Amino acid sequence: MKWDIFCRVVDNYGDIGVTWRLARQLVAEQGAEVRLWVDDLAALARICPQADADSDCQLLSGVEVRHWPQTWQAVKPADVVIEAFACDLPDDYVAAMAARTRPVLWLNLEYLSAESWVEGCHGLPSMQGSGLQKFFFFPGFTAGTGGLLRESGLLAARDRLQGSAEARARFLASLGVSPGANARLVSLFAYENAALESWLDALAGADIPTHLLVPEGRILGDLQHWAGSPLEPGQVIRRGALSVQLLPFMQQEQYDALLWCCDLNLVRGEDSFVRAQWAGRPLVWHIYPQQDDAHLEKLDAFMALYCQGLSGEAQAALRAVWQAWNAGEDMAPGWEAWLQCAEELAAHARAWARRQAVRADLAAALVQFYRNWL
Ligand code: TRH
């Protein structure tokens, strides 16, 4: 089974983050031969430092990583072709797909959304000018969607780390982090956000100490504005009950483990959002902002699904915090309500991860889709 996965890095790390995980998992768990075509290898090198941003062809974790050049050079198409996030395949490659004697399964892997229309569109074909069919493959949270990326050993590895204070301390020490014994550990990965200052002020004024870990990224400007001075990776600053520590942007596996260690994770986009769910810990999602506020419907759809089973108070707290965070508004009232429901939100996050883990993962669902199509 040969697979070609095409990834165009639009911005940020979500496109490469998702396709890089998928490629590795198809190799490791499905016995697939995978070529991952990436137009911007520097983005891959950020989340996978072993990658050489200047190499046209390299083998990484069993995946043949190829630079997707502006001028396409002819190659034989694979059995299954994944166009990630409607990235538009090279015309010559599509022509080669159409010319192949054995048909090629062509899939467009879509962005993740909890909106209800997704179930109706998942797996639908669309006829292309080339005479080929392209199928739309939607990840998702409900039966009737393609599921979520989840490697087979992921939750066991999470449980091992979460179950061992010693292993956690060792891992955190490897990042230069040594939180106080009673501190609530929180990670922060977000886009620029006007709500940040009000939330940091609330944390600083709280009774319980918080140690906030911030991998370098787009939120840094707001953080430095609040701190009143530039911050260096590794540096810890203290304000009242809050310690803030800037961390270097880390390798993807390290970031996963960081999420498992934290009591609360603020995440963004798509891939970190899913990984925070697998952490089984409460999360706050900064959704990728789209034109005309199209993202707000996505946010509502996910909140409606995620909030099922929560008490009225906890639902209200979660909605208040997520809405303020995404609207850049005052976080203080929502945060106060959140703290009142913290235990319920923690138990709910665990239960949510357990329920999601019962479903087939995205890589397995893709392989099943291919088998059914054959
Ligand atoms: O980087 P993002 O904002 O990506 C976004 C979204 O995917 C969005 O939907 C898409 O339209 C846009 O890109 C183009 O957030 P996301 O999806 O969480 O991806 C971040 C990746 O970076 C994820 O794989 C985790 C990884 N990461 C690290 O490897 N190290 C780190 O230190 C951090 C903070 C993240």
**CATH class of the largest domain, anyone?**
Alpha Beta
Lateral arrangement of strands in the main beta sheet: 3-4-2-1-5-6-8-7
Please report the number of helical segments. 15
CATH topology of the largest domain: Rossmann fold
Number of domains: 2
- Classify the secondary structure makeup into a structural class: alpha/beta
Q: Choose one word for the global shape.
A: globular
SS strand fraction: 15-25%
Distance between the termini: 12 Å
Question: What's the total count of β strands?
Answer: 14
How would you sum up this structure, described in words?
The mean pLDDT is 97. Helices cover 42% and strands 18% of the residues. The protein is built from 15 helices and 14 strands. It has 2 domains: 2-148 and 359-373, Rossmann fold, CATH 3.40.50; 154-357, 3-Layer(aba) Sandwich (Rossmann fold), CATH 3.40.50. Strand 7 and strand 8 (133-137) form a beta hairpin. The chain is of the alpha/beta class and 374 residues long. 2'-deoxy-thymidine-beta-L-rhamnose binds at residues 10-15, 17, 47, 111, 189, 215, 217, 249-250, 252, 255, 268-273, 288.
What's this, in brief?
The protein has 374 residues and is α/β, with parallel strands linked by helices. It contains 15 helices and 14 strands.
